[in-house]
Amino acid sequence: MEYLWVIPFSPLIAFIIIGLFGYKLLREPLSGVIAVIGVAISAVFSVYGFYEVSKTGGYYDLKLFTWMPLGNYEISVSILWDPLSALMTCVVTVVSTFIFIFATGYMKGDPSYPRFFAYLSLFVFMMLMLTLADNLVQLFFGWEGVGLASYLLIGFWHYKKSASVAALEAFVVNRVGDWLFLLGVLLTFVTFGTLDYLDIFNKIPEAGFWTMTAIALLLFGGAVGKSAQIPLHIWLPNAMEGPTPVSALIHAATMVAAGVYMVARIMPVFASSEIALDTVLYVGTMSAFIAATMGLVQNDIKRIIAYSTLSQLGYMFAAEGLGLFKDGMFHLASHAVFKALLFLAAGSVLVALHHLLDVQKMGQLRKYMPITAITFLIGALALAGIPPFSGFFSKDPIIEAAYEINWVIWVFLWSGAGLTAFYIFRLYFLAFENGDRLDPHLKAHVHESPPNMTIPLIVLAAGALILGFFRDFFMNFLRPSLDPSQMKFLSEETRIIVENGLERSHHVHIPDVLHFVIHSLTSPLGLLALFMALGGIFVAYLMYQRRVIDPVWVGNTFKPIYLLFYNRWYFDHIYYAIFAYGYYKLSRFMWKAGDKFVIDGVVNGSGKVSMSFGDFMRLAQTGRISAYLAQMAVGILVFLSLFLFLS
Amino acid sequence: MSIPYEYYIALSGLLMVLGLIGVTVRKNIIAVLISTELMLNAVNIAFVAYDMKLNDVAGQVFVFFILTIAAAEAAVGLGLVMAIYRLRKDVDVEKLSELKL
Amino acid sequence: MSVIEQLVSGLGLPNFNVLIPEIILLLTAFAVFILEMFSKNRRVISAFSITGLLISGIYILVIILGILKLILSPITLREASANPFYSYILNNYLENFVTLYGLYVVDLFSLVFKLFLIIGTIFVLIHIRPYAEAKGSYYGEYYYLILFSLFGMFIMVSSPNLISFYVGLELMSISLYVLIGLYRKDYRSKEGAYKYLIIGGTGTAIVSYAIALLYGRTGTFDFREIAQTLIASNTVDVGLIGGLILLLVGLALKASAVPFHQWAPDAYEGAPTPVTAFLAVPSKIATYAIILRVVVEAFPSLTESWGFAWALFAAASMIFGNLVALRQKSVKRMLAYSSIAHTGYITAALAAPTGMGFAALAFYSIVYLFMGAGAFLLLASLEKNEGWNNTLEDFKGLAKKDPVSALLMLIFMFSLLGIPPTVGFFGKLGVFLALIGYNVWWLAVILVVTSIISAGYYLRVVANMYMYEPSFKGKINVSLVEKLSLGVLAVIVLILGIYPTQIWTLTTTISSLLMAGVGR
Prior knowledge:
Chain B is an all-alpha fold. Helix content of chain B is about 75%, strand content about 0%. Chain B has one domain (about 5-90): Helix Hairpins, CATH 1.10.287. Chain B is elongated and about 50 Å long. Chain C has a two-stranded antiparallel ribbon with strand order 1-2. By secondary structure, chain C is mainly α.
């Protein structure tokens, strides 16, 4: 399995080449081509590695090189290749490949074309460092690295003020999560003396329940920030300021899913604490529902999809909180495909409409852009969970399992599914069907996108169409990584702890694909879920296609709720009040109370005390040689007498 | 009858302290320089005395090293004194205090 | 038989093979000395001396890699002797590496330090000509004096013996006295040089008196023999303690540790800035190296009390250096105090006399080369501009006037402060871990607290550069060559900050080899 090292380093080499020669030699088409080649190579290798590991179900821990010896523990850069990381790596590299190809069309003519592909390649490298890590330090390195790449790419059009503000916001909000994560890593090291996953797992029985809870919660804090879950979600919708391929790759398919992946990766840690699992469950469910409500009333095409990303990530976390780690990971994979598809289709629309974002000003685009419209429709059906698209096979089992475990959770997830179907079809009808609201000037130029943009759409649409049928394969494939009875690297004691932790999901039985389809079409529970989705689509049809129900009337009738959703549950306002206004107040207070102590201390340097000590000590430096020598003589005398006295 | 070596050591210690005091209290930059040379000569005496006690030659060899180094140091020092005098027309060590704090 | 043959027949010819880098260096220095008299072409002189250093450096690098290969990989003796390169290394560097009749040792430890001393000196040499020309103070003497001083450092880090240590120390110091004073028509430079001369001369006297006392007590100059005598006799008397303390004081003085630091700020401020860089970085590093060697080889039985004394020096240096640096208006003088503080950080590692502590010391002093040299040389480049005085005021708004220089300064400041991903972080982390590994908590706490205090002055430079409107009226012009060489330093700082492993392993290896005393 030594060839695996190619996977992360191929994009890195592409990054270096583009970074060095991008502007001078390669310029527009070539730097994109090199980036595509770089990521395609790692996609090929990771698919091959996926194939190999699916045959054996084993795990391979390749230590590439030692990064830093730390006492008895050596932090190494390494590759842990097991079904879980293989799946995540394949998702990252394959989806990236198509998005890269799409981006060669989308970014055409941009003056910073090489820079864009350099950043994208850097992002893929960092993301792979994250997914392939076998220890928390490397994971954290990748974690920070993707954060950096995301910051750079959100603010890619730095001349737009909104873009640089959004980049900064993403950076700051992520830091909150990262601090928690870092504390978790430190606590792990203090507790176990190691940071390698496999060693941590085997030492879990040594640690107490509360220690494990603290570690799991701190690490989950990082996941909440990175995966934009409530309450740290506010950065993601604003991150849509970045170019659309970036939104598709980083803020939908891969980076934001890193939190989900991380929780699955160290599943035994979470499974050893009931409280941690419950926290994951509630945070995930709340995000799934609240984000869906926020998505109902948005008009910005990319933001609608962004809220749906938040909501779907919530479903994944909810699955993990329910103990269904494999379903969570499968939903991650299928979501990556159809969400990338939705974003790319939206990007295709944006290129055609010269970056017009407001869906209320679109309409009848299907006539001009049939491929985009149909692929978008496939993605929307997958997101809504309509059989036989992949979302149905990945999302509905989570909702149904929730009913068997905790019906309150089920209510939220189930109604969230209806909202999802409604808002995505609202978008579809407004943009691609319905009346003709397009600006005539724009309409004259609207046309279908070139092949390097439509082909990725078609491939991803095909993926969204068929991926669901491989559900059983993926479930079995993931077993050696996520099913405690088959995890070879767990010791016996840890296995017992993990199995106890996952007890909540033991009685859940999800049948194979065929029976699942039959079950959903016959059993009341399955029909409920299906009708919820269809109902959502139907209401959207009535409101936005047939215009039977007037959306404005609905908005006026339920004004408080409408305003609540429209203002995104006032999260931004509250944060603004606390952090911006509160900070302002606080610093006013500090200014007055501490007489510039804080300002002196934090901004201008150190506190007054050390300053005056410095002044005092400075007096010794009189500039006169005799004084220097006298001080020296005193020093010698002090040392001589000190040591003569001591010995 | 020869003088015990401890006496020489005591002499060298005395010279060393004298040199140190000289460096500290003298006002003339040349005198300060001479005081440092005095300290080095104190060391020479100590070396020769220990050499006598140990019946060795290495100590005396070291004296030669110190002599050469002292000469080099004195040469550089006098050069600097010349340069300072040329720029300031003054040899008072107390006034050599532009660089401070 | 000639007289010379008769002379050496009793002792055998010294192994000159191991001296090749030194010979190259010395020949370069003499050649520059002669060239400077006849040629007026300054570029030739500069290029010639840099080339000489490069050759010497590459030679050392190859030897180091060969030695590491031999030590670290499982090559058997037979395989090694079959290969001409390995057998050369085996014969010269792993067997007969004590040469000149026991006065000179060429072990891995000294080779590594020599390599980095050469690197630092090359950077100084690159910057000295533009600086001196802009200031109208060009002297050809800079080149060969720097080379002679470097030769003195070579002798110092290679000395197994108090005699060669003393000679190396003095060769280094006397060349430095002259270098500091080499600033045409500038009184402050003379004053700094004179102060350094007098205090350094006193230090020399103290060191030689310490050597005399140690010699009188043990009857030898050799570090190892001193150690053996001390262990064998196992008594402590006034003479021994006096000798030890005076040696300690002399070394502390050369390393500018508080309370023997007084010369440093004045000499640093007075000297031409590239010379300040040379004074603050290579000469300091050579001093740290010899301190380490003396501790390990001469006084292994006394590491506890020796370490405690250094802990006191280190604590005083960290507190004093950082607090006083806070109140400086001139960035050059501020960096001088910061260099005193760094002496504190580096020598603090001696308070944990373990392999970890020694490795941390070697690591920090090697990486200090890049950030310290970078900061001082950047000052030198900026100072070339008319009217630039290196005050904090001058730095205001530099980011707008010259973004590249501001970015470089930012990197060096962050590294000196110890913010990841710069290498300064790992330097401090290594010392910190060594200290807590040895349970010297009080010193570790002082290290952390004073590092936080130091943010006050490092970040003030950064804040001035980025948060203010430009206040310096003149033009900022830093030539491409200077930007390139500073850029290389900054990139090294960043790369080592992300991947310090190689240097870390290297320093661990040399400290463990030094402790094991391989071959000696």
